[in-house]
Write a sequence for this structure.
């Protein structure tokens, strides 16, 4: 009979083929269940939960200067974005951004940032008017220092939950007295901004540290 391999000279070819096939079957059969287990694991882990697609927030983040092809499908997994129940509560964007504050404006009366509590755009090249933040009444911490943001500080007088407000080195102007309703304020920086007025009008801010 024909010889299969020199080494297995004594083994008939049919038997060799049979052994090889059996070995292959074992290999494939053994590998498949573990592959399935792996992909199952990937899909069922609790932290693999994905927030639904949020087109409004995606558009807004693009307006803030984030490149669309670098935005993950689930925006809440982006390192600059923090969410609770899939609503954006934290935005901390890096210095190189060059977008516009219009990103915060409502579109058809809907804003993706109504739950936003913490906003830091510090040192970015963002520009635009403070007025865009007028409806973000959940804001507690806001840092716009060193940005090109402008506008009238009266736009902030409805943000009653603000605890920390940093407007150092901005073009924001207007009367400092328009902050008098913000009685939760503990930290306030207005150095090198265009804000002016009588500091006595801040006497209501008894929590200021
Ligand atoms: C913002 O920066 C990006 C990337 O550096 C650039 O492509 C874009 O033109 C800039 N946009 C503005 C409005 O300056
Ligand atoms: C603020 O909310 C009102 C009412 O929903 C809306 O008409 C307006 O466009 C919003 N303004 C901004 C700047 O988002
Ligand atoms: C800011 O807005 C207030 C109220 O609308 C207005 O009286 C004031 O003149 C404005 N200040 C500046 C510097 O535009």
């Amino acid at each position: 009979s024909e010889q299969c391999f020199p080494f297995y000279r004594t083994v008939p070819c049919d038997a060799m083929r049979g052994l090889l096939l059996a070995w292959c079957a074992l290999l494939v059969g053994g590998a498949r269940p573990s592959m399935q287990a792996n992909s199952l694991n990937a899909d069922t882990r609790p932290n693999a939960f994905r927030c639904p697609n949020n087109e409004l927030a995606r558009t807004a983040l693009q307006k803030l200067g984030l490149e669309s092809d670098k935005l993950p499908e689930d925006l809440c997994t982006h390192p600059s974005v923090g969410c609770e129940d899939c609503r954006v509560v934290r935005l901390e964007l890096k210095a190189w951004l060059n977008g516009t504050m219009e990103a915060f404006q409502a579109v058809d009366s809907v804003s993706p940032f109504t739950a936003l509590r913490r906003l830091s755009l510090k040192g970015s090249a963002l520009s635009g008017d403070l007025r865009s933040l007028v409806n973000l009444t959940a804001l507690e911490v806001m840092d716009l220092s060193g940005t090109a943001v402008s506008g009238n500080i009266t736009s902030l007088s409805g943000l009653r939950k603000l605890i920390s407000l940093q407007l150092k080195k901005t073009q924001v102007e207007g009367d400092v007295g328009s902050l008098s309703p913000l009685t939760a304020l503990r930290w306030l920086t207005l150095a090198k901004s265009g804000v002016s007025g009588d500091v006595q009008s801040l006497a209501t801010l008894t929590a200021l540290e």
User: Anything to note?
Assistant: The helical segments are 13-44, 55-63. The CA atoms of residues 48 and 151 lie 41 Å apart. The longest strand covers residues 87-92.
